């Protein structure tokens, strides 16, 4: 068995597996190593864990052949409503009919099913699920990992796609700036009386954002939304322990009557909110993608989309370099990838951090100033269009695979 591939991708989540499939479309082979059991990640049921896929990210999925598989499971985002505590003076982002949607919402389970199915059928991907790495090596002529069962896998370039706690990044000694927001995001699926109208709601409270994201109706016709509710770290445990009835009463207080009766809530989960950004995203024969390089607040739903832009840029750079006879681990190619992605990722990270802090300032005066600013944007088409293009991910120097 030949254990040498072009890429050695460590982490087979949404970003890592998309990278492997995107690389394969360009003829680039990979090992994908992940310790998770795919069966656990694709178990039946909707638990509220969902992702907003921007227009540019949808272009990527289309260009690598996943659109037909995913299309029936995505809920279009026709509009985004932004409000400060449900008071007057909010924002309404709605594109013109010819501009399409602002993106699509997918249950993470459906994204994983599509990616895993495609990866299992792709000969250029050697997928090592439920595998623990015991050693990593980056040398002058290649990279390798040793698995717990003794197998050794080899490649030209190592890619860290393991998420926020990336051991590969930490082992490489890459400096990282990070801080905690001292908040947790509580995630759950809601079933409600009135249809959501394909509107994504971002309701800001001093304690944190309260987001309601449109999902497809259930098979029995029940209307569903995904809830992402930010609470103070000290309140998270108590909120998670509330009975369903008490939890729904708290949710109803924050969202008002817009969805009518909230009929049920699915399993609740939570995760800590923090910011991190690495000083660099490459090292000798190493590239970082997704949350391994930059972790941002979910306030604007851009975390996964930022990682998919990393994927598109890295594959563009590698494919062009290999066409010219360079190997994937070539330092020139890694430098080009870093120069391309560094500024965009840092700008988005700072913007989301700034929004989190601005909307977290308590008091009536601060709320009035925020609502005045939003009213100004609402009346300025040029600004509104700029924000919508940012949300759709269609601004800037896009990789080829993220273009329509």
TrEMBL record:
The chain positions of domain FAD-binding read 6-341
What pathway is it annotated to? Cofactor biosynthesis; ubiquinone biosynthesis
- Which InterPro entries does the record match to this protein? FAD-bd, FAD/NAD-bd_sf, Ubi_Hdrlase_CS, UbiH/COQ6, UbiH/COQ6_monooxygenase
Q: Does the keyword Transferase apply?
A: no
Q: Which GO MF term does the entry hold, naming one?
A: FAD binding
What cofactor(s) does the depicted protein rely on?
FAD
Instruction: Spell out the PROSITE patterns in the cross-references.
Output: UBIH
Record flagged with keyword Oxidoreductase: yes
Query: What keywords would UniProt list here?
Result: FAD, Flavoprotein, Monooxygenase, Oxidoreductase, Ubiquinone
* One example of a Gene Ontology biological process annotation: ubiquinone biosynthetic process
The UniProt similarity line reads: Belongs to the UbiH/COQ6 family.
What is this protein identified as?
A: Ubiquinone biosynthesis protein UbiH
């Amino acid at each position: 068995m030949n254990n040498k591939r072009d890429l050695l991708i460590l982490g087979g989540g949404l970003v890592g597996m998309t990278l492997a499939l995107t690389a394969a479309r360009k003829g680039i082979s990979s090992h994908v190593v992940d310790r998770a059991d795919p069966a656990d990640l694709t178990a039946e049921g909707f638990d509220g864990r969902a992702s907003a896929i921007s227009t540019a990210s949808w272009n990527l999925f289309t260009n690598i052949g996943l659109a037909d598989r995913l299309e029936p499971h995505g809920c279009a985002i026709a509009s985004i409503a932004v409000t400060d505590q449900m008071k007057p003076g909010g924002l309404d982002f709605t594109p013109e009919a010819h501009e399409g949607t602002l993106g699509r919402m997918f249950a993470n389970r459906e994204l994983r099913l599509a990616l895993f199915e495609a990866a299992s059928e792709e000969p250029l991907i050697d997928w090592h699920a439920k595998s623990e790495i015991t050693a990593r090596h980056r040398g002058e002529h290649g990279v390798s990992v040793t698995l717990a069962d003794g197998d050794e896998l080899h490649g030209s370039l190592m890619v860290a796609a393991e998420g926020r706690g990336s051991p590969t990044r930490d082992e490489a000694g890459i400096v990282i700036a990070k801080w905690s927001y001292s908040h947790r995001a509580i995630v759950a699926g809601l079933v409600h009386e009135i249809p959501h109208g394909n509107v994504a709601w971002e309701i800001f409270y001093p304690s944190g954002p309260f987001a309601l994201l449109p999902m497809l109706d259930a098979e029995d016709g029940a209307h569903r939304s995904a809830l992402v509710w930010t609470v103070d770290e000290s309140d998270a445990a108590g909120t998670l322990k509330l009975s369903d009835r008490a939890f729904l009463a708290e949710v109803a207080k924050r969202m008002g009557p817009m969805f009518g009766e909230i009929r049920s809530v699915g399993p609740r989960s939570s995760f800590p909110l923090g910011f991190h950004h690495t000083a660099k995203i490459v090292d000798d024969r190493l590239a970082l993608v997704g949350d391994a390089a930059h972790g941002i607040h979910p306030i604007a739903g851009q975390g996964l989309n930022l990682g998919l832009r990393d994927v598109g840029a890295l594959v563009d750079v590698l494919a062009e370099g290999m066409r010219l006879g360079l190997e994937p681990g070539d330092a020139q190619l890694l430098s080009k990838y870093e120069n391309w992605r560094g500024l965009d990722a840092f700008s988005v990270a700072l913007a989301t951090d700034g929004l989190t802090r601005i909307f977290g300032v308590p008091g009536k005066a601060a709320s009035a100033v925020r609502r005045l600013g939003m009213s100004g944007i609402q009346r300025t088409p040029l600004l509104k269009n700029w924000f919508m293009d940012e949300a759709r991910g269609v601004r800037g120097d896009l990789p080829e695979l993220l273009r329509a």
